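Final report, Chapter 2: Outcomes

The project's central promise was a pipeline that accepts a single protein chain and returns its three-dimensional structure in a standardized token representation, suitable for archiving and comparison. That pipeline is now operational. To close this chapter, we reproduce one record exactly as it appears in the project archive, with the input sequence first and the structure output second.
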Amino acid sequence: MIGDNYFGAATALLLGSSLLGAFFDNIPYVATLAPVVEDLVAEVPDPGTGQALWWAFALGADFGGNGTAVAASANVVGIGIAAKAGHHISFWQFTKYGIIVTVLSTLMAWLYVWLRYFT
């Protein structure tokens, strides 16, 4: 499906993982998709490109976890600790800032993957 466009594959993995990681807990997401990435990497002609695909997948899933309150266990714990200290953080209040952080960090990760592996 990707042919020889490994940069496109890395971009799709990074952006797709970031988007999905913002709405689903990233641990089950990564556990579910890791075999798919493993099969994709097995078809790559050189190890450096395979490494780029793994990094794109990992960075996307990780940074996507910043997007919403439910995307990572640490977010839920942090909101709980804030509530105990008297600072209520709603889902939408968290998301308003989390999406900005997710978009910016994902763009920086995309730039890193591009510069590190494809230039």
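Archive annotation: Helices lie at 6-21, 26-42, 47-64, 73-84, 91-117.
This record, like all others produced under the grant, will remain available to the consortium after the project formally closes.
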